Amino acid sequence: MRNPLRPVRVASWLALLVFVVSSSSAGAQTVRGRVIDARSNEAVRGARIALVAEADSTVASEMADDSGRFVLEAPAAGTFRLRVEHVGYTTVTVGPVRVANESFTDVVLRIAPDAIPLDALTVEAESRVPWLERAGFYERQKLGLGTFIDRAAIDRRDPRRTSDLLRTIAGVRLTSTHAQGVDVLLRAAMTSSITTRTCRPPIFMDGITVSHQQGSIRIDLDAILPGDIEAIEVYAGPAQVPPKYGGAHSACGVILFWTRK
């Protein structure tokens, strides 16, 4: 018998193939069949099949059972289309399917899986330097008690000198009156009154003290090249200083330099 329904092409590789067989039967005009996966040949459970008239109105619909089977009764003889819908599969409408009076038409519907578009995901990854992680830099930064300058901020500012990185920090004063070059002073609050004083803070390089308030030798800030710095921490008063770097010499605050490894 000649197949009265040709396969219908759909976008890309997706396809739905229909095979129709008609024969006489006493009773109503019926369309029955099975929905299967075009890739695996397994039954597609829960697919919704609709019998659509020429006016694009649905005259009957049915949900496929566990074996992918369904039965639709047409209200009268005529020419119809079949629409198949299922989550994860492309929705396809095929036809025409010709249904005669008091007969049944068997169909096998093969539907192909369709990719389900998902909303774009934004993944934010925090880049951390292992050396700074071990030194506790990020933990202190999270507490937010001081001023933190990381490598990304240094690159954005592209400073000519290291002192340029400290120049805009509140409470920081730079001086070049001593023979060793550019020095740094912090305006720290005195513990006994609301007045303030300016004094030299201890400076640490990779956790080691390189100068302190009472030292006679001061480090020249601009002797440290900006390209050699991984991060800077500035604590402008004793209340901000982390316990690890506190003590008798930290009453004015503390400055920590971390070099690139």
Describe the structure in your own words.
The chain has 261 residues and is mainly beta. The protein folds into 2 domains: 8-111, Carboxypeptidase-like, regulatory domain (Immunoglobulin-like); 130-259, TonB-dependent receptor, plug domain (Ferric Hydroxamate Uptake Protein, Chain A, domain 1, Beta Complex), CATH 2.170.130. Helix content is 9%, strand content 38%. It has helices at residues 130-135, 137-143, 151-157, 163-166, and strands spanning 8-9, 15-24, 30-37, 48-52, 58-63, 69-73, 78-85, 92-99, 103-111, 147-150, 172-175, 183-189, 196-199, 203-205, 208-211, 229-235, 254-259. Residues 1-26 and 189-195 have low confidence and may be disordered.
Oligomer: single chain
The total of helices stands at 4
How many domains, as an integer?
2
The whole-number mean of residue pLDDT values reads 81
Low-confidence sequence ranges:
1-26, 189-195
Mind telling me the CATH superfamily name of the largest domain? TonB-dependent receptor, plug domain
Give the overall shape, derived from the CA principal axes.
rod-shaped
Highest-level CATH class of the largest domain? Mainly Beta
- The SS-based structural class is mainly beta
**Biggest sheet, spatial arrangement of strands:** 1-2-9-3-6
CATH architecture level-2 label of the largest domain: Beta Complex
- The radius of gyration over CA amounts to 39 Å
Helix fraction bin: under 10%
